[in-house]
Structure formats: C-alpha cells, structure tokens
C-alpha cells in the first residue's frame, strides 16, 4: 500500500475554506442569481480541493527524452477538474437562463415556496381535513346512528339521481362508514 | 480491427443513446425520423442490457476503454447488479418514450381540451386564493401570470424532448456501468443535466418555480459528491472502484468515515433519504406525466444504486454508519408516508410514497448482510417498475378526469373500468399485497431484519409493516376518491377530460403494468438472481478480481509514484 505524501499548501487550503464558506453563505440566499454565485464559488472550492489532492505543482506531465530532475505534476487531478469545470460551466448557463425566465415571469428571480405545500400546512394548522370528505362529517350521536345516516344519504341520493351507479354508491357508503369507525 | 467479445456490449448502453441524441437533435425538423431513431436506440440498449444480464451471471463483464491498462485507464463494469438495474431501467425508459410520443401526437390536435383544463386550473387557483383569504394570509407572491400558462402548459416540445430523453438514458446507463467514482459523477451529471431540461420543459411559471428548487438541490448534491471524490483521491491516490476497495481498508478510520459520510450525503440527496428528501414532492408533480414517471422510477434509484455499490464494495462494515442508516431509513419511511396521507393531489401523494419506499431500500442496505442486500436489490427492481407504472396511470387519470386533485375526481371506476384496473394493480403492488412483487420484496426485507435480531432492526421491521399499511391506506383513499366516490358533474358531463383515452397512451401503461406483474411471475428466478448479485457484492473480492484478473500489478498506478516523488 502506497501512502501518498502530499503536504498541501496552507494558502490553497485557506482559499478552499473561504470559497466554501462564501458559497454556503450565498446558497442560503433567496435570489437565484446569488444562489448561482454561491454554487460557482463552492464548485471552484471543490476543484481546488481536488487539485490539492494531486500534490504540489511539478513539471508539465509530458514524457520527454532523458530523465528530468523535476518531478511531474499529477495529470489525473487536472483532467478531473477540467471535466468538472466544463460541467459547472454548462449548468451555470442553464441556471442563468432559468433565473432570467423566472425574472420574465415574476419580475424577480427569488426561489418561491411550494404553494400546495403551504396550503396543506395551513389546513393542518386549522386541523381541517386535507380533502373534502362527506363521510367524516359528524351527523349523529353514536357510531350506529352515523352509519345509518350515511346509509340513508346514499339511499336518498339513489332515489334522487338515478344516473348514479347504485352498486358503487353503496360500496362507497360502507367503506365510508368503516373509515369513520377507524378514525375514532 | 475490432475484436468482438462480451466486453464490446458494455459501452453500448451509453454510446447508442448518446449517438442517437445527436442524430435526433440534428434531425429535429423530422418528427417521424426522430421517433424511429429514439425507439431503435432504446431497443438496441434494451437488447444489450438483456445480453449483459445473461453474461454477467457468469461473472462481471469488464471493458477497458481505449485499452489503457486498468489502474490508469477508464473501465466500465457490468456485474449482476448493474446489468439487472440497466435492463429494468431500459424497459421503463422504452415504455415512457412510447407514452410520451403518443401524448405528443395526441396533444398537437387537442386545443379545446387544453382550454378546458386551463379553466379548471384557474378555478383551482380561485379555490386556493379563497382559502388563503380565509386563513388571513397573503398569497399574492405565489400567484403566477396566467397568460403564459394557457398556451404552453402540458405541451411536450418534441424537438428537444427526444434528444434530452436519450441523454437521460445515456446518463443512467453511464452511472450504472461506471467502474470508477469520477465516471459515476459524470454519469450523474449527464442524467441530472437532462433532468433539469425535462423538468422545466416549456418554461411555465409552475415548472420554473419547481425547477429552481430541484436544480439548486441537485447542484449542491453534485458538489458534495465531487468533494467526496476529491477526498477519496487524496486519501488513496485512485478513483478506480476496485482499487479503492483494496486501499480504503488501510486508510485511517476517521478519514475513511469522512469520505463515507460525504459520499452518503451526496447520494442521500439524490436518493431522497429523509432529512434530504423535501425537494422531491415539491418538484416532481409539476412536470409532464411521462417525465414525472421516468424521474420517479429512475433518478432516485440511481442514487440508491450508488449507495449500494459504495457501501458494499468500498467501505468495510461499520456498525455506527449502519445504525445511522437504519434510523434514517425508518424516518424516511414514516415521514414520507405520513406526508402521503395528508395529500389531496394524486401526483403529490405518489411522490410522497416514492420518498417513503426509498426507506425500504436503505433498510436493506443498512442491514448489510447478503440476504438484506438481495432483498434491497429485488425491491429496487420492483419499485422502479411499479412507481413508473403508477405515475403513467395517473397521467391517464388526469386526462380522463381533467384533474389530479382527489376532490375533483370521481366515478372513474364506472366511467373507465380499464383505467381502474390499471391503477388498482400497481397500487396494491406498491402497498405490498400478496402475492405481488412488492409483498415478496418486503417479506425478504422483514426476514433479513428479523434474522439480524438487534432491537433497532426489530423497530425497523415494525416500522416497515406500519409504513406498508399506511401506504395501503393512502392508496385506498386515492382509489375511493378517484374511482368510487360519486362523479363530479364536470366529469360526468364531459366538460373536463376526454371521453376516450388514446390507445397509444393506454398501451405503454398496460405493458408496464404487465411487466410489473411479470416480475411477480418470475419472482423466483429474479430473487435468485438478486441473491447471486448480493453474494458477489458482499463477498468483497469478486468485483476486484473481475477488474484485475491477474491479481498482480494493482498497487502501482502511475500517478502514485509521481505524486509521492513530487511532494518533496
């Protein structure tokens, strides 16, 4: 097992730390443009970290005639960083386009809340059911009365509108009554 | 002269769709040619994946790209796990492509229906605004301009759809076949970049809102993953998975733990494990139905695959990490399914069940035995199929009933009995009703949990049964509301929704539902295959031996020698 003897340069390590810290700070912002800048900072920090993983700078990694006195740098980390930079570039372009589209639509590029999620959270705060459910309405004193009530409702609705499918209606009624029971 | 061998097949699932993506982009004016190319590409991909499933059963198939020797060059590895994941993904991709092609053709001739849907949507918005007024809160900031919505909503722009879809397919295949950490990262980036485009198709206000959250979270997870790759390289001097597997055990345990947690964090965001899962139910439901279906089926599972691969191959068993994963699995299951119970929109409900059932797979990974890993693999295969099928069915429900809100649906069991069957079968499968494949996967996990016997494993066993029951509750609720409750007037009178569902859309959905049933029928051989896959994953040497067949010359990668000299 070969242990790499790679003492990183303190300056680089410091730069990586600053880039990550600044990036995290910007990522916590609401505006998409700032979030993007934060992402760019963090990914550059990540790239630098990988560069540090390859050891200190050396000669260009080209194999020449004769023995060179200066050791080569590690070309693999540079290849990896190059790939990561290209990916970051493409994604930056995409997020910029998205921020612009958001600005076109809303007049700002702020990351918005999930409307449906907030709606459900409000319902939960009021302790209201998340969906309208006729079967859960309190209609009688005891469970038996409620079950009878539900059953009557179905029977009535069958009489009133003949178009409704009778079998389905009844099935739903029974199911509903059980649901009420289960919820208690 | 190319020498043909089993190894020639391995790059095909990546190369073919990428090449086809380029072709379809160049031929974007010819919709018909695009369709033919896409279907042919995916068929070819499916053929090679099926061949790989058979070949990998004899031993992992390794291809070295460009013939550079392994520690230096890039290798693709198709072992049993990769091959089976690849095959199932390709089947799902093909069905979804068929579905979206049919949808594209139908939608181009359906102006009036779009208007009707816009009306319903506007009405829903009014409801919500009213509710907001009742609650005394301001909704103004969230209300998006309508004009844009009406014209662009629901339309799949064919010209970019096909290339992007194929790139997504290539990215998924690249992630499954990657033989080193960095290529795994590149595979992830390919499929994520394609998914950003697919999620924000059309650039409507809704999708931009959902997309910005999704993209930012995914970008962050990628950076975390990349940092993990960097740390692994710094600690071991390699990113090759087989070589990492040999060197990581010798690395200082605390450094190794750091690398492991960093990778788990990155994959955990992608796989939507509990504290990192909030982005998923927010972003998936706004995309077009086929896009949501393919995302739900594949993207999170690629994350799960990466977790299985790195946990079994790279890191020696670590009880603390496993215990953390067990707790997270439990939280994922319970929080996810409780979220699903609260939902009123079917798409969101299914997104929450998706999060919840990721917990089962993590449960299997965290138990870390051969049996548990086998059950997790079987569960992944089952879940990819069934979740995609359910989202496709919900796409049909939306077309038929004009909405995905359970309050505005009803009576579909009578109006569309075929659709009811298509929904019922995968729904029961997801909930784990015997004898379907969901039940078999869950039983496998429960058995592994019981055999483990630790108190935490028992808690997980109970938790997963409770989750299963709650899944049943949530899905039966959806079934009752959408299929059994009295139909709303809108649906009966035909003002919303279509009277007849196009055959092109029902076809792929039925095929996928049939495929999920077929998984039940062939469950015996499939489970045996998963067990063999788990065996080679957990024995700790098969993968390394497949990559380094000679055994020797594996410690001295070129880069090590130079860096160790270079640092002085």
Automatic annotation (TrEMBL), chain A:
Compartments where located: Cell membrane
Acidic residues composition bias: residue spans: 135-156
Chief site of localization: membrane
Disordered: annotated span: 127-184
Transmembrane segments: 6-28, 35-55, 75-100
Pfam families to which the protein is assigned, alphabetical: Oxidored_q2 (PF00420)
UniProt entry keywords in alphabetical sequence: Cell membrane, Membrane, Transmembrane, Transmembrane helix
Keyword GTP-binding: no
GO cellular component: plasma membrane
Gene3D superfamilies xrefs: 1.10.287.3510
UniProt membrane topology term: Multi-pass membrane protein
Family of the protein in this entry: Belongs to the CPA3 antiporters (TC 2.A.63) subunit C family.
Protein name: Na(+)/H(+) antiporter subunit C
Provenance organism: Xylanimonas oleitrophica
Source organism phylogeny: Bacteria, Bacillati, Actinomycetota, Actinomycetes, Micrococcales
From TrEMBL, chain B:
Domain named NADH:quinone oxidoreductase/Mrp antiporter transmembrane: residues: 178-467
InterPro entries named among the record's database cross-references: CPA3_Na-H_Antiporter_D, NADH_UbQ_OxRdtase, ND/Mrp_TM
Segments for region (Disordered): 549-568
Keyword Membrane: yes
Key words, A-Z: Cell membrane, Membrane, Transmembrane, Transmembrane helix
Membrane topology: Multi-pass membrane protein
Locations listed in the record: Cell membrane; Membrane
Gene Ontology cellular component terms for the protein in this record: plasma membrane
Transmembrane segment boundaries: 6-27, 39-61, 81-99, 158-178, 184-201, 213-235, 255-280, 287-308, 320-342, 349-368, 374-397, 418-436, 456-476, 505-530
Main subcellular location: membrane
A molecular function (GO) term: NADH dehydrogenase (ubiquinone) activity
GO BP term, example: ATP synthesis coupled electron transport
Pfam families, per database record: Proton_antipo_M
Protein family per UniProt: Belongs to the CPA3 antiporters (TC 2.A.63) subunit D family.
NCBIfam families: PRK12665.1 (NF009308)
Name this polypeptide is given: Na+/H+ antiporter subunit D
Originating organism: Xylanimonas oleitrophica
Lineage: Bacteria, Bacillati, Actinomycetota, Actinomycetes, Micrococcales
